[in-house]
Amino acid sequence: MARTAPRHLTDDELATVDRYWRAANYLAVGQIYLTGNPLLTEPLRPEHVKPRLLGHWGTSPGLNLVYAHLNRVIRARDLDAIHITGPGHGGPATLACCWLDGSYSDVHPDIPRDGEGMRRLFRQFSFPGGVPSHVAPQTPGSIHEGGELGYSLSHAYGAAFDNPGLLVAAIVGDGEAETGPLATGWHGNKFLDPVHDGAVLPVLHLNGYKIANPAVLARLDDGELDHLLRGYGHEPRYVGGDDPAAVHDALAAALDDCLDRIAQIQRAARGGDSSGRPRWPMIVLRTPKGWTGPAEVDGKPVENTWRAHQVPLSRVRDNPEHLAQLEAWLRSYRPEELFDERGRPVAGLLGQVPHGDRRLGSNPHANGGRLLRALPVPDVRRYAVEVPEPGGTLHEPTKILGEVLRDVMDATADRRDFRLFGPDETASNRLSAVFRASGKNWQEHRLATDEDLSRDGRVVEMLSEHNCQGWLEGYLLTGRHGLFASYEAFIHIVTSMANQHAKWLQVSRELPWRMPVSSLNYLLTSHVWRQDHNGFSHQDPGFIDHIVNKDPATIRVYLPPDTNCLLAVAAETLDTRDLINVVAAGKQPTFDWLGIEDAVNHVERGVSVWDWAGTDTGREPQVVLAAAGDVPTMEIMAAASLLRAHLPDLAVRVVNVVDLMRLMPRESHPRGLSDASFDALFTTSAPVIFAYHGYPWLIHRLTYSRHNHGNLHVRGYKERGTTTTPFDMVVLNDMDRYRLVMDVIDRTPSLASRAIAVRQAMEEKRNKHRAYVREHGEDMPEVRDWSWANPLG
Amino acid sequence: MARTAPRHLTDDELATVDRYWRAANYLAVGQIYLTGNPLLTEPLRPEHVKPRLLGHWGTSPGLNLVYAHLNRVIRARDLDAIHITGPGHGGPATLACCWLDGSYSDVHPDIPRDGEGMRRLFRQFSFPGGVPSHVAPQTPGSIHEGGELGYSLSHAYGAAFDNPGLLVAAIVGDGEAETGPLATGWHGNKFLDPVHDGAVLPVLHLNGYKIANPAVLARLDDGELDHLLRGYGHEPRYVGGDDPAAVHDALAAALDDCLDRIAQIQRAARGGDSSGRPRWPMIVLRTPKGWTGPAEVDGKPVENTWRAHQVPLSRVRDNPEHLAQLEAWLRSYRPEELFDERGRPVAGLLGQVPHGDRRLGSNPHANGGRLLRALPVPDVRRYAVEVPEPGGTLHEPTKILGEVLRDVMDATADRRDFRLFGPDETASNRLSAVFRASGKNWQEHRLATDEDLSRDGRVVEMLSEHNCQGWLEGYLLTGRHGLFASYEAFIHIVTSMANQHAKWLQVSRELPWRMPVSSLNYLLTSHVWRQDHNGFSHQDPGFIDHIVNKDPATIRVYLPPDTNCLLAVAAETLDTRDLINVVAAGKQPTFDWLGIEDAVNHVERGVSVWDWAGTDTGREPQVVLAAAGDVPTMEIMAAASLLRAHLPDLAVRVVNVVDLMRLMPRESHPRGLSDASFDALFTTSAPVIFAYHGYPWLIHRLTYSRHNHGNLHVRGYKERGTTTTPFDMVVLNDMDRYRLVMDVIDRTPSLASRAIAVRQAMEEKRNKHRAYVREHGEDMPEVRDWSWANPLG
Known about the structure:
2 copies of one chain form a homodimer.
Chain A: H1 11-33, H2 60-77, E1 80-85, H3 91-100, H4 103-107, H5 115-124, H6 152-160, E2 166-173, H7 180-185, E3 199-206, H8 216-219, H9 222-231, E4 234-240, H10 244-270, E5 280-286, E6 296-297, E7 300-301, H11 320-331, H12 335-338, E8 394-395, H13 397-411, E9 418-422, E10 440-441, E11 453-454, E12 459-461, H14 465-477, E13 481-487, H15 495-509, E14 520-525, H16 543-547, E15 555-558, H17 563-573, E16 580-584, E17 590-591, H18 596-605, E18 607-609, E19 623-628, H19 630-646, E20 652-657, H20 675-682, E21 688-692, H21 697-703, E22 712-715, H22 726-732, H23 737-747, H24 756-776, H25 781-784
Parallel strand pairs in A: 1-2, 2-3, 3-5, 4-5, 9-12, 9-13, 10-11, 13-14, 14-16, 15-16, 19-20, 19-21, 21-22
Antiparallel strand pairs in A: 6-7, 8-17, 18-20
Helix pairs in contact in A: 1-2, 1-3, 1-5, 2-3, 2-10, 6-14, 13-17, 17-18, 19-23, 23-24
């Protein structure tokens, strides 16, 4: 390892960092290949090699390099730092590094830092019953799954928000950099307050190749790349090469330079300089893919090509040449200089490793539950709306919820551990009350016409659902609380991210050392039934269908029928742990059905009979009217009042479902109702006319094994929509009150003859509606003015 | 309108373009507000105003401005051009412009270009039974829905690919520009071949505000913005201001400059200059939001603020001041100078409007079915694999499919109307045969180690599912064909885009003037069961659940059990129209079950009894074993062979489902089986053990109304996974052959006593597997070596 000028590191520092890097590379290769002979104490034989070779070598040496150098600066500067590994496929690297620094053995005592531990570390990697090939919850120090790519920067910014002492080093792969979420992830720096937030240090790792192609950013000419990164708001530092000593020195210098600059920015801002959004430093690291691996295999170049992406030598067990190449490769790291005879790292190797919780594998921010404090959710009864009689008053549910959120914001003003994220819709979603407690975060210059913007705001709005989701995930996984409010239809944009977060929570729950984190709360509003004005593209309730495919222990879905129920749902969900809570609630004036105590009880039970709304008191119901969702509840209630007026003898039971998961069998979901409870609510033989917020077949999917499933008839959104009126939306989808009454008549044979006229009257109402709405462009007065308390309709 | 130097337009040109713009603005306001008195021939009264005011004014004047100026250059240069309206919320603008140029009345003859037509144009906007408030399929000249934001650039590049004579002007809103998909959409220029492709001209419209916030890009300082756009690979031209004459002149000059530069780039490239990827020109247009609208309303500034986003005057019917302001606003455009007494545009207004199909509202590329040619799909029998006996041979299905795609590529080499899109996975998905017919598109410099890259390649790979999807959509909607191959789990990334495309197709189908386009074909491979090596983050079969929520007439889902069936599915789907075809098929060696003729018949029927695999010949089955998907089929076949060996008297029927939608009732899906056909396959009383590729409850959701549903027992992926072996994946999810045999025993009471030993043997096999796989890291020999032809297991 020849030195070249300029020299930033002393010889000793250089030797230490290089030794760590070599050790980490050795351990990465070992994990991919070896099941025995971890220290190469004997010649490598086929039986030392795993039968299935799985893992990603290509990115690993770069990840190891960054880790080694982060160690040095963390220790030298006593930094509080975590790292986010965008190229999380390089699981062998991260695992190698945290085994080396001891943090791995701290949480996995069965894998000690010695020869036997090394053997187990190798063997368990990508092995049944072992650990995944990518960075995962099982990896200490990580808050970022390897696998799906694109979220490293949004996770990094989320972690840095409200963590003024924290440095988040985010390694961005050049593959990941091509994704949309990452491409807008750079703009996180537009929302980073140098006073109240920590710093994000992006390290763009250009190793040139993806699975089978060059990477786009790696092939840009230097000028264009520099434009791009400055355009993203950064001052880039460039480090590159394939001579380890030179790269070590340059990377160390660049890191120190960046950290000095970050300290300077923060010092200035915290000292009162408000001269505008800083241009944060970043590093571009250009090193060969699969660096230090085999240069050629079977006559084809491998190092510094896409062929280095996964397992460079693929036939080690049955190809002696591959076996010899592997042994030579492993020995090229000179393991005898790195580990003592008992397989422990030699003393000089660990000279730059930080201590205790400063280690990247042990920093409590990356196991956020360790730092989590209970969220001060006020007693929601204080915000309750008066309900003198059911259906006699109207409130905008999200508007009232906004008052609760305002007070949560207020109560966390000093702690700064609660944020509200949304894509430019907080006001549109009628949550504006929060602005009285916190502005909207904005680091750019402001104009006189702007409202509610502030540099330290904890409401974060950017027209990127990906950033909102990624920021919230990063915020939660580092031990804070938050809520993501979105138009229901467009939450689909982050379907895949929700997927990955659910998987993360599911796996984390099984790891005793991972402390529970605050739940990811979605408020889906401007929902399918109230996108009459925006039209078909804004109408989609299918996120619920997606989320209920995930681990039942992780997911909850709430459909509060009114304002007080939304308050009760907020009370139940906001300070929970390790869940994904999906709450779909309207922002438009909605009838109040329940007083707050009833609402709290209703939410606690999840499903209730609304006795006061039915006509089955003291007798078996002949038909059950069930609803889940605010608009479905209104239509069911209107149908119930029509039935009461037109068929007063019919014994109608009204059931409301606020906690959707209760419909699932108890064996399938921890909140599921027992069959006995389900039967008690829905009977075993009466027809059930069920109006549901979303796609109707979801209710069948949840209830197919129930005794009365054969009598269940579900109405919901069936992908019919356009720009029209609210009532026309329910008519288009056959979920309107008139149709529901017709459904009751059609499913209750005993009614047949005496109900013919009623059925015909309902059909005429629907026709009258169609004509009226097309002439007047608004709903019929009898629909607009209808209420349960005064049922004109 | 004062002129300022420099003057690019003559006075006459300026007057004409301004007159068009004023007329379009007038018509946009009219659509938002008026239901009568369209020409203001009498004083405005409340009853002339719509009861519900819906629409987006803020972006409309900018969209009108660009449209007016595009008209001028299209006519002056006889350009073949379409436009993509990123801020598609500005429906009133696009509708106004194509009503003005006559293209609207061409396809909607009930809305003529006269006073009565204007009244109807106004009235129908955002009105029940009318047209949506956003740009939509109903809007002539559009291939891009307004609503969800982010896809304007990917749609634009998709439209430009292989359309060397086409100019695609893409207006990007500053709201949209914050999204991830748009942020990576800029990189489309890295894949635009100046020889074989057309040009994309991005117009970044910075009007400063979103719904309620400033826009991020609009507040960057000039230098940073310029860096960003140059970093995206563009040479930006800047136009801005609020003086119409000056902006007209500057925009005209910038447009001419850009078009000259584009022509120069194309001329050079087509003349043989291959000096590298060109830096394409673009325009940054900075004009006030809601320009020319009310400056203030109720004492608050509106023009040039976020308050101009939707309806600036909201209480026109009951607030006389608002009414007066609206009238003044409308009259500010001087309609009497724009329209004659019969409401027709005055002659001078249309002086720059192109003729016939050159009009933006009439260009056939934006109604791509007009240009579509049948895809030359070869007879797939030519690629069939020999199947001497079922289950005796193995092939990699996608590898064989790759040969078909290669020949489709070849057959379209001159026509250039077929492309394959994928996120860096074409080789990984074993479709590499296509590279023999077309390289992977790459405009950047190449290195010696690169393989299969070419400037004119029609395989397009970028690590952005958003771009792949958007490019394919743009390509299809302009009348070409294509396929998107993706890892199954990560297709969730474009869930929301698939949503919008399904809605587009659904609505288009009802418009007689929209000609059918080629279907969007997904090949989902590297699927859930074969992501044992990549682990839990890569395991998710839920895209199917999502897509089946969409309009049944639009969607098809295929699960070919083997190579020949995949070929037959390709034959059935590749040249269809107006559908979304989802095909999930493996890339790993898969048993061949059917010869090609049987495969074609099987796919044609969608569901078949595999007589040869069952033991129910000549008798009623006691149990039905059903499978959908390649791995489920293998496990079902293995279970059938176990049953044949251990319980030879049991009458087992084996059913295979290749076309999932057949399971739906005929009334719910055009491909659904009648109840009689379903009963004939699945019986009305025998237990059905169903192994399904995805989440098991989807099968219940599809079949809940079938007679035998109560006896249906479904196994599938239930969100259990990690990095492990293939067989361990099915064991973890209880879909393995042993578990299926146990299921049969558990559900067939008549077997009870004589099957106890068999059940126990199966349980032991599972336990043996668990121990074996954890010891050896690979599957038991009896699983690895099992085949139907030689059932050792």
